[in-house]
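Continuing from the previous page of notes. For each protein in this section, the sequence appears first, followed by its structure tokens. Read the first protein now.
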Amino acid sequence: MAAMIMPTKAVSSATRATPASRNVCQNPETTRRVAPADGYRADLRSSLAVVTAGQRVSVADLDSGDLWPLSVPDATGACLDPGGAKVAYVRERALRLVDVDGTNDAVLVEPEGPDVSIGLAEFAAWTAVEGGRGFWWAPDGQRLLALRVDESPLPVLHLADPAQPDVEPRRCRYAAVGAAGADVTLQLVGLDGTAREVQWDRDAFEYLVRVEWQHGNPLLAVQSRDQRRVQLLEVAPQTGATSVVREVTDRAWVTVPAGVPARTAAGEVVWVERDHDTDTYRLLVDGAYVTPPGLQVRHVTASDDTVTFVAQDDPTEMHVYAYDGTLRRLSAGSGVHDGQRRAGTTVLESRTWDGQRTSVDGRALAAEAEAPKLELRVELVRAGAREQRTAVFRPSWHEPGAGQLPVLINPYAGPALQVVLACRSWHYLLSQWFAEHGFVVLTPDGRGTPGRGPLF
């Protein structure tokens, strides 16, 4: 009899970049060298970075290693402007600005009511997209794009604590399937607090999927509620008007991979979409395919002079590629690789059967990860007519032909996660642990998992 194991899923995110120039403003008396951090944001155009630890914000000079705190309690989404002069953040649903030395902290845009926020993503995007990013600096630092979210159309829920029946239930608004969603608009905000709404057909394209403003005019990806149509829009920053750059339709749904839309430093639009003729997610630069059929593009990691992206020609492996007029692969060896190339520097994170390795321009960084207690005994096979990639785990002590073993099934099928990969991972070790107790464990990647075309 087969049993089923449903593994949990771990999620982590960070926004990282490598600064290139120096622009420092600090108070030496409050400077520290080391501080705990759970995230940071930096920009190529400044040597400063914003470091966050919970809702505490500090500014770091990446040239000197100095770090100083900002007195901005309960801050959310802190992000440095490209020139390294100001930090934008959200507190009490209002978008605020503060100088990098901690002075001139003030509200930039105030919400109109208790159900409105400025600069915060609505709940679904907060849990799923870029850590809930809600505003974006212009390349020149003179204005921002900020979300305005009105949750008043959402139904009200009252959440009680069974352990404290004498406490009044907490009131919150939460989106329900089939009901109205939050009213999400996008505002162009000047440093003087003036705001102009970005215009698009929000009746036809209810969802704002992605915003990009690194080079040139802003780009948006908006999607219909049935998720079968996506428009790629360019915004005129002076007026808020939009024009359609590209429209994509699919009878099932349209996927917008992470990292797009984007622009190169030369202003070319970077996009990923399904090529229906070859059933391949392909990279487009300036409207033309630049990757071959069969190479499934997963996501774009950087877009400057070079476009860096992760793609698969074998569903069990991921590799890092670069395009700057010529397509080339940056990662080598079997495994799962991620990374990017910016400002002439290539950073790669590689997971193989031996563990995890991070390298900068080919030089490995020291790793202190603890070695697992189990040795994997895993075989990757192609099962059935569809060649479903499947990981097969056997006990380390079991000899072929020594008798049959009961089978456990440990699958995860869906568009959000692929588990049959050529590297050591926590879920592989979990399967091996069960195998050591006298089982054969099968982990198949069923239809709908990434790494192959949408028809799969």
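Done with the first. The second protein uses the same format. Note its length before scrolling.
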Amino acid sequence: MADVSGSLPNFSAADLPDRMTEADVATNRYTEAALERHKREGLDLAVRARWIALSIIAVMLPFLNPDWSVLYYHMLLAIVALIGWFQRRFGRVGKSRMELFLLFLDLAVMTFALVFPNPFDARTWPDPMVYQFENFIYFFVILAGGTLAYSWRTIFAIGTWTATMWMIGALLMWWFGRTDPVLDDAARVAFGHDRALFDVLNPNAVHFDIRIQEVVVFMIVAATLGIGVRRFNRLLLGNAALERERENLSRYFSPNVVDELSRNDEPLKQIRNHNVGVMFVDIIGFTSYAADRHPQEVIETLRQFHGRMEAEVFRHGGTLDKYLGDGLMVTFGTPVAGENDASNALSCARAMLAAVEEMNVARRKIGEPDVEVSIGLHYGPVVLGDIGANRLEFAVIGNTVNIASRLEGLTRSLKVRLIVSDDAKAQVLREDGDVGPALAGLVRQDGARVKGFDRSLTIWTLV
């Protein structure tokens, strides 16, 4: 059935949650995907429900009218079922004239079937007798199916169009319908003493009071269902926005941190101090590598590298603070501190080195040069919180960040792949309680001079 709303697919601006605009929906791929999924699943459900309902009605009709003329109604039921198939075939998110036509055709066929007498029926009853069977209830089958797939505006359209067609059909029946004056006279003789009873039992009467009652009740039900569908649509858009926000968080935080952020209200706005593992990772000689390569090849190499590094960061419970060109800054213990932040950081560094080696094995097979990385890791106190005025950014600030960066830079002169500060190594020992596999192979070096610091540091290196 058609979407008869405005320019938005299935929704108008009034459908949107607070602070969401039509532009937000148009550019939000999560919302568009949710709308498309909602429409497609709803169409499937609506058509299946229609087919089941029509099958039940087809089986029921011969018991209500055991005559061959009932095949006429079976033919009309088949047409309605076929229209449902076309609705499933052409249904899509957005305005569709075909869907609009199918909706109109759906209601028109149903009105024709219920108002106009069966031409194959041998009985010579007055045409208005069709109203004695209260067939209007079958419109609720279409209305119920419509709630499964369509916008609230379309639900209102079903209610309005049904009421209009039904009343037009009643007027045509009153004006052109075949009546039987003999029955009218007989009923007047039998019930003429009671005008109200005669009006109810008159076989030639269209009973406009009952017809109006039917359409009023139908429109009330349609309006109620439309409001329910509108509330569902708002919930759908809200959930899509939450999924988008969660996906954005997952680009930077590990899954466990995303869960923490999802469970708490604005935890990042709390400025606080605690110890954090900070790690800097960089590709050695990438500038000279990029100078002789096609830009697309350079970007592809970066994507492969960042993808592997990002996977290890999240696998070890870290937070991707930012990309730094061909490198990245990673923190462990943000936004909330854990019990094994230093151990996770060191294990992540070792896993990153292993991932780069696997990457190089694949590159050698195609004749590409190896990618060499350097990693600096430190553990210590930092300040965490949002910075900025209008555009906020979660920041990790402090001397610990500077030391980790300097340690990464020191790997070049020492010709090692990994440098771990003595503070980070000591914290790993406190967390693990013993020398674990992450500490294997680390070599102590005393008196290391780090640029920007007056005192020398004890560091641990891995070639």
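What the second structure shows: Strands lie at 272-283, 319-324, 327-332, 373-387, 393-397, 418-421, 443-448, 457-462. The CA atoms of residues 13 and 22 lie 6 Å apart. We return to this in next week's lecture.
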